[in-house]
Amino acid sequence: MDALLCGVDLGGTKLSVGLVEQDGRLVDKVVAYDHTRKAEAELVLQIRDLVRELLRRNRLDESALLGIGVGFAGHLRFKDGVVITSSNFPGLRIKNFPLRKAIQEHFRVPVAVDNDANAQGYAEHRFGAGAGYDTVIFLTLSTGIGAGLVLDGKLYRGMTGTAGEFGHTIVEPSSDLVCGCGNRGCLFALAAGQSLPQLVKKKLDRGLKTTLEIEDLRRIDGRRIKEAVDRGDELARAVVLECADYVGIGLYNLFQIFNPPVIVLGGGLINWGPLYLERIEKKFYSLAGDMLFDPIRIALSKLGPDAGVIGAAALVLEKP
Amino acid sequence: MDALLCGVDLGGTKLSVGLVEQDGRLVDKVVAYDHTRKAEAELVLQIRDLVRELLRRNRLDESALLGIGVGFAGHLRFKDGVVITSSNFPGLRIKNFPLRKAIQEHFRVPVAVDNDANAQGYAEHRFGAGAGYDTVIFLTLSTGIGAGLVLDGKLYRGMTGTAGEFGHTIVEPSSDLVCGCGNRGCLFALAAGQSLPQLVKKKLDRGLKTTLEIEDLRRIDGRRIKEAVDRGDELARAVVLECADYVGIGLYNLFQIFNPPVIVLGGGLINWGPLYLERIEKKFYSLAGDMLFDPIRIALSKLGPDAGVIGAAALVLEKP
């Protein structure tokens, strides 16, 4: 049997560890939900124990692994494998925590650590919707918005390792929607899951009717919006279409910058379905017009609900 | 003596051909202004004759050249060296004209053809303000706005060869400023030299006073705006600052996407000087805030008035 990949998805809500074949198929996984409040040392031990558990119950030894890839929902200084920001992980308090080194200490096989959007983008290139393309722009539409840039066969990471923060590009500077980053009118503020409460509030202020429970706006998320749309909710529908228009502008901007053969959309919001996705495409094509000299594919992620783990695992396959 | 580079700058106003040393120093050049209305075959012969003239008066043979690089002010299908759009060259009417092949037929040394912004970006990386950096984002602020992307040591061109069309990224979708591309609120419409007439008109409509000659708005260009600013013109000053704010947003978007160590600004509008450049930086830093994990250099082009020719010549040095 070929060596397996181990993927560790360090997300903001769950920590998933999976065994993945070299063609991207998930073999088995374990999940924990109590990781975000753990301090550094504890979190690293939890990861170690989850990997060991997974190996044990599959009757495997560490030597069955080609390596361990870790996808982290935050900024990393890539070359050093060091955490820069960790707003999703209140337990992480050590400045510049050397995440890769700390995990590596518990394993003999190589450990790679990267931002989760980069990891998923690379997985789409290796065995997802971007397979067969040398250049793949992956855009995740989720609680946040971010991109993974595979250019000419390689993950492009930039100076620090934070390239692809496409969610913070500004497309409506005079917007009254403010992002957690402090700026107005970045894609994150206009179209990310985390911004849905303020998007709903804005529509309420304009008098749109809704069946959403609006007593506590903070509880509004992508799933609730989807359910409301499905029951014919006018306001939820308007929110989905507005998000789609901004994502369409983002896609167009990515097209002008990268002229890629394929853009892959992933993240939970793609479950909003055709109302959302068709509007994104419509906006994109209306802007691109006759500037599309070659056809571009706009594809949906093929990695499914385990995209995080499979993405993390794919990092192991990256050549230095 | 080391072999020389020959650069051919096929611009919208002039055709310059230069001999350039391998460190980027210009040795000699010839310029023509009557090229844009020539048909394909004539234009190619004009290029051949200018190269020959330059060689002759420097007592050189073609074998003294390492190769010939051509920077073209329009869209090219890079791999084939074929012209896609040629709005700057009314004489070019043949669809998909194979520019590289047509020029190559007249020379034994290799001929490389690329978009002018790519060429200049590569030259900044090889021997300009981006020397010593593996990744250089070059942004030209001129009649148009465009980028040349040198990523991890290589020019990134995308699928067709039209990557880096950063001027057409949209940053103000509800703007009333429309670009030649048909879209509203792209950087080109908001801040390029070609858009100055409509920017001036907008300020006039808002009642700003000016000493500019506004009988024929089409004559308003970067130079006239600069002269007006220098004599204390309120409207011209407002135009410069507004352009700078949008370029600052563009720079910030480039930073979030590429996380580059350096962004090089070039093109004629940088001659607007400190009023413009300091405002661009101010906008950039106010947006980047605490998201700048490593310092980024914002530098001005070092290639000077012959950036076009030197850029074209640099293409010869590119490894396949």
Textual characterization of the structure:
- 2 copies of one chain form a homodimer.
- Chain A is of the alpha/beta class and 320 residues long.
- Helices cover 34% and strands 19% of the residues of chain A.
- Chain A has helices at 40-57, 99-104, 116-127, 187-191, 196-205, 222-230, 234-258, 274-288, 307-314, and strands at residues 4-10, 15-20, 26-32, 65-72, 76-77, 82-83, 111-115, 136-141, 145-151, 154-155, 262-266, 297-300.
- A 5-stranded mixed beta sheet of chain A has the order 3-2-1-4-7. A 5-stranded mixed beta sheet of chain A has the order 10-9-8-11-12, with helices on both faces.
- In chain A, helix 8 (274-288) links the parallel strand 11 (262-266) and strand 12.
- In chain A, helix 3 packs across helix 9, helix 5 (196-205) packs across helix 7 (234-258) and helix 6 (222-230) crosses helix 7 (234-258).
- Chains A and B meet through strand 9 and helix 7 of A and strand 9 and helix 7 of B.
Shape of chain A: globular
Cα distance spanning the termini of chain A:
24 Å
What is the strand arrangement across the widest sheet of chain A?
Answer: 3-2-1-4-7
Order of helices and strands of chain A: EEEHEEEHEHEEEHHHHEHEH
> How much strand of chain A?
15-25%
Largest protein interface, residues of each chain: A-B, 45 and 45 residues
Structural class of chain A: alpha/beta
Low-confidence stretches of chain A: none
Described by strand count, sense and barrel closure, the largest sheet of chain A is: 5 strands, mixed
Mean pLDDT across every amino acid position of chain A: 96
Helix content of chain A: 25-40%
Kindly report the oligomeric state of this protein. homodimer
Cα-atom radius of gyration of chain A? 20 Å
